[in-house]
Amino acid sequence: MRRFPLASAAAFAALLAASTPAWAWTTVTNSNGDTWNVNDAADPGMDTGSIHNTGTNALQGYGGLRVKVPGAPRMNGVLLRGFGLTADSPTQYTSKKAVALGGVAVKRSIAFNTAEAYARYLDTFTNRTSAPITIEVAFGGQLGYDTGTNQSALAATSSGDTALTTADKWAVSYSPSAGAGSATVNGTSATVPGTFDRTGNFLLGPFDHALATSGDHANHIGYVNTITIPAGATKALVRYVVTGLSETRAPAGGGAVPAAGSQVAAVTAKATALAAAPPLGDLAPAEACALVNVDISAINCGAAPAYALGPVVGDKAIGATTSSPYNVVGKTITQLIADLKAGVTTSEQITQAYLDRIAAYDRGPFGLNSMITLAPDVMAQAKAADAARKAGDTRPLLGIPIVAKDLMSTKDMPTTGGSRVFEGFQSTTDAWQVIKIREAGAIVMGKANLAEYANDGHFSPSAYGQVWNAYDPSKSPIGSSGGTATAVASSFAAAGFGTQTGDSLWGPSSAVSLVSLRGTDGMQSSGGTMPLTYIQDYVGWIAQSLPDLSLLLNATAIDNPADILDDVSNGHRPADWTAGLDESALVGKVIGVPATAFDDPFGTPGTEAAMRESFKHFVAAGAVVKEIPDPPAGPSSPPGDRGYEGWRQWLLEHPNAPYTDAAQILRSPLRLPQFRNTTPYTGTGAMTLAQVRAFEAQRAEYRARLATWMDTNGVDAVVFPGQLSDIHLNDSIQPSFGRRDPQASAAGVPNVIFPAGVNDHGQPINLQLQGKAFDDLKLMGFAYAFEAKARGRVAPPVDVTPVLPFATSTGGTVGGTVPATLSLSLGAPATFGAFTPGVEKDYSVTSRATVISTAGDAALSVSDPGHLVNGSFSLAEPLRVSFSKASWTAPVSLDPVDITFKQLIKASDPLRTGSYSKTLTFTLSTTTP
Asked: Which side of the chain, N or C, has fewer Cβ within a 10 Å radius?
């Protein structure tokens, strides 16, 4: 064994405060108590650099960056992400890599001044081509939502008025409900023309849509700059974002409510000061000299070094190909089955095509993040399906690849619930519906991403990346089944399982023009699926067409003898779901439109108008559409903690789970920050049988009242909307869309969801038809008749996830030599923060090393860390050292390794004044040089 030892002195001084752990988005706290939640690279991995929200909601998904580069092949102008933004200190965030869009590489850094409540954004743009490039850059996001008191408005500009023009170096916005003002300083010198060139609508696309002057869209301001970059050069923009405290409530740290207008005045004063004297002294000369929107005449740029771009990550789809000759894009299950039976394709080709598309479009800085796990033997399953077909197997879904929401137990893949709480957990059994779909011959090819524990109906954020919308990859896919809907819409799978507690089937399906059914309670069993709310949870399908949905329901809408909750539908399940798909099903029927169901809470009428226009297809299919009163309100919930009871039941189903009590799951510190609650559980715990029966009876009573409401108004079904507005950007706060829930989830009545065209901005829209208990098949027939007259499903834009070119390869020979090399390079010495006597704390700090190895394997180790010493005095607890990666099974070049040092100081440990240090020896070795 050859060893190449390298020593590094790790001196630990009281210099660096600990940052937030890497499994939670990072929160910056101002000295006034206000907080800024940074969309950095930490979970859920938005990595846009925007501010998800401040404690006062002055910012609501703001600071995002869109870039438009001429000739960029894909994702041009989307909300940019993938910078690897991490906190170098509690107030400094920098890109660990540049993101390449076309011929331009983009990096950004954020510096927070917590004493004065502002952030400085520095964005650099490097031309990597041999010719000049003129790009457009938009900075902005969401400063309010809805209209009325939630509406953001301009309070002041640098020109002294409330009319924003390109002459303004800064602008202050204000929202009465948030009470806090915010300012954006776009340019800092009157000597620099064009601090910004124009404003645009940051939600729809600031390069092509002007900023609205009223309504919800006016909340989404985008400041647009046009920059020409010489070949090989770098240009940069600097902006300052300032916030104030709320004027409607007391500060978080205590004290009186600020006087009306005082915080807007304070923000205005700070913006004025920043514009007059922008803090730039800490910038590297190459960064400062690249600035184009500030006066840099006082900086000596003649001797400035070239800008150091560093690592660059690009779009994984660029140059991607598929090894499958069969095109799966837009193919329904019905089409796939026909082609399999005709010998046009094989399950192996279909599966390979899906896998190649996932590899190209689901990961990297422009990835959609729809999938968490792929089955390790998925290709072997496909080959087995092809062999079975040749042998005469006639199972209805043989060889069709589908995905399951990662709440559903699978014995061949981990089940995470989208959370670090269950990282690595693998069930020994399949969920009931997974069992049934496998019995029908389908391949469960992977687990789809979701909102952690299905806990968000507006977004789909998980510990494994936040899902993006397949139609507009700057927007939310809605939640919680966003991963399933995005995967199916993007042709990563033929169909997928989702779940619904509130809107998690109809919301994501509506966002991407797919079909679904939230059936009558018990129509499909939720056995073996992680819960959100016991009894109300419903496992269902998200599919491309109603015929597909029928085939899937034939396989899985089957009584589960172990699930007493699905007994309500026993005796009512259709024998053949395809039998109800009749183009004449609407003839003579009456469709009711509840009085306020289509009133957009955001006040944006374009989507509502498009939906109402689509009612003509009901009429064309032979139905009458009429207005009816709103439905009766549902009852208040009876006693009982249904979240706790759901997890208790799941634990009984999964004896190999890593937890024994529901409270351990619900209160885990490993949860995402927006869902985390680590206070001790004080709820009512397990539900009694009487409480369970009372809730079931309450739902049954509500179903009966809804049936009476329909009969009284003489309707056969009731129509409800999907999303009632344009969907908001993925980095913003709730609500992400105009939402009015039908009664399906609250009562357990059936609801079929289906495409109805597009709104005034080209966004897909869906309708929902709701009926009486056990009208499931009848509703699917109505939807089928509607689609026969309508345009049906709207395909995703071709430039988001286009067809991959088919490529084959053959072998060739070329020679060369590489010398044997093992190289370990350590970063700067690591330093802890100050040790505090009398307080038990585990201090942690991380340093970065890089490894070069040409060997067949390599291993990294460290000498016994021992104890940190201060002269002859040593700490009581030993120093601990761990690596993010400690072994390699193939050659690597400049592979990064995080070295984490931890030091426990107990409350009773003695401490001596001064600095502590310890020299360690790190060894990189190989057995196969």
From this structure: N
